[in-house]
Amino acid sequence: MKIAVIMGGHSGERNVSLDSGKAIADACISLGHEVQTLDINMDLVSIVPQIKSVDLVFNGLHGTGGEDGTIQGFLKSLDVPFTGSGVEASAICMDKRVSKSLAENKGIKTPDWISIGSHENIPNEISLNYPLVVKPSREGSSLGLSIIQDQSRLPQAVELAKQHSGVVLIEEYIHGKEITVSIIGNEAFPVVEITPSHEFYDYQCKYTKGLSDYLCPADLTEETSMRIQAIALEIHSMMRCRHYSRVDFRMDEKGDAYFLEINTLPGMTSTSLLPKSAEANGLSFINLIDKIIQLAAHG
């Protein structure tokens, strides 16, 4: 096939996307495909000829512009098949406020939370228990995220989050384990447990080798693992995602999993979680890329 791998973009996750795109392109070449790589910027019109000349676009973008339905709408308008979720699912999942609300409506646990709009002030009293997680509603890779212990740090944390997104989420911090479930096709892969060296799983811990430990399969009973995988599959389906995604949770000491967010274009770098989960399930990185291509080629 003729495949265009799109990467880069203009979000805060640009460098991660470039790493993902390179890994994806190398795998596509190893599979025998004819590959061209495109570093996407704001001028989408300039890449129309290249996009229309290929059989498939492998979307290696992350964050704003690449994961929020924008590039998906562009590719759909050109009638070019592409990997990952469509316009609606991408837009819903990119906005944590929306995806958390939908999950809550289905009875799926998520940390108690409130949101602050771009022109709203911080409430004088917040009926949430500290510590709190303050983060942008529309951003990934833990950019703009803070964990605060008391009211005094709240204004600073909100201002940091607003640098990345107009809407800010404030949610209760769940003491326990950081876990994630990758979905490929309609199958939930082994649960990954993450132990970061920093206070939380921040940008550095996500993308610097040696700053986090990963256990896959996670240290959970089979029953607990299957329950969390089922919740992840339900969320993936409910949000109308396709091909692949990654669902992130915090699990408390009682074993209850709390949904944090779903990533429609999870990272494909050497430290990324989806490839780790696939490998634990016997799927090499090259075979993972091939599976996603086959899923996209068949709709």
What is the number of independent domains?
3
Shape: globular
| Quaternary assembly | single chain
Helix content: 25-40%
CATH superfamily of the largest domain: ATP-grasp fold, B domain
Beta content: 15-25%
Q: Which CATH class of the largest domain is shown?
A: Alpha Beta
Kindly state the number of beta strands. 13
The major pleated sheet works out as: 6 strands, antiparallel
Radius of gyration: 19 Å
| Elements, N to C (H/E) | EHEHEHHHEEEHEEEEHEHEEHH
Write up what this structure looks like.
The protein is α+β, with helices and mostly antiparallel strands and 299 residues long. It folds into three domains: 2-83, Rossmann fold (3-Layer(aba) Sandwich), CATH 3.40.50; 92-109 and 174-297, 2-Layer Sandwich (D-amino Acid Aminotransferase, Chain A, domain 1), CATH 3.30.470; 113-172, 2-Layer Sandwich (Dna Ligase, domain 1), CATH 3.30.1490. It is 33% helix and 23% strand. The chain has helices at 14-30, 48-52, 70-77, 87-94, 96-105, 154-162, 203-207, 222-238, 273-280, 285-297; strands at 2-8, 34-40, 56-59, 113-116, 132-136, 146-148, 168-172, 177-184, 187-188, 192-196, 212-215, 244-251, 257-263. The radius of gyration is 19 Å and the shape is globular. The two termini are 15 Å apart.
Can you describe this structure in just a few lines?
This protein is an alpha+beta fold and 299 residues long. Helix content is 33%, strand content 23%. The strands form three sheets. Strands 8, 9, 10, 11, 12 and 13 form a six-stranded antiparallel beta sheet that branches. A four-stranded antiparallel beta sheet has the order 4-7-5-6. Strands 2-1-3 form a three-stranded parallel beta sheet.
